[in-house]
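Researcher: I'd like a structural prediction for the single chain below. Treat it as a standalone chain; there are no partners to consider.
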Amino acid sequence: RMKRASEKLSNYTPSPYQHYVEWKRWGLNRPFGTCSEFESRYFAAELDRIPSAKISKVLEIGFGDGAFLAYGKTLSWMMTGIEVIPDLVQLAQDSGYQAISSEQTADLLANSFDLVVAFDVLEHIPQDDLPNLLSLIFQKLRPGGLFIARFPNGDSPLGLPFQYGDMTHVTVIGSGKLRYLAQQAKMNVVLCGAQARVIRTGYWRHTVHFAFSAVVIWILERVVKFIVTPHLRITLFSGNLVAILQTPEAV
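Model: Treating it as a single chain, here is the predicted structure.
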């Protein structure tokens, strides 16, 4: 099965995306639409932080190798995926997912999604285009709908490897810039902070390490904030930030 997915992807991949897809190894390490146990726990941890809401229709922007599409499918959500890379759109469709190209985003019905997610996407968007993207997301969400985004932490040196480790990252985003963008899009900021931490894994050594590091980071975060940045709403000890935005109940 993995070999078939690899062969399909190699057939679909023209320039200018070929090197990027090969570098990410999408469709090569595992079949498209595979969600590992660790990824499932991570996605669940992020979703546990959203306000209580009924979710049935979900849009993922930049679905990559389809891990979150697969996760949503296990929850019986109606998943729609958007990708800028035509090869991945075709691969997702061939794997049974509803997927469209980024050029078709405007064709999606307004007020039709309960949740929009964008993991590791916003940093690929030129800064001048981000307000339009968030406005478009606002249009596609129902009143009270939610948007979750993960991106390299522009507030911390720990975000540098994530931001500058990818040639296609063009925009640095910190918590202040995120709040500005949310205000422009008329969306409420529910959360802007460290990405969720998964403690329990399939290996006891990793679990002990993650549990110990979580305690140390919790202490360091508060000590540094108290001494160095008491007036700033920033997260220092996380390589990625996660933002949860919500549209007003009545628009």
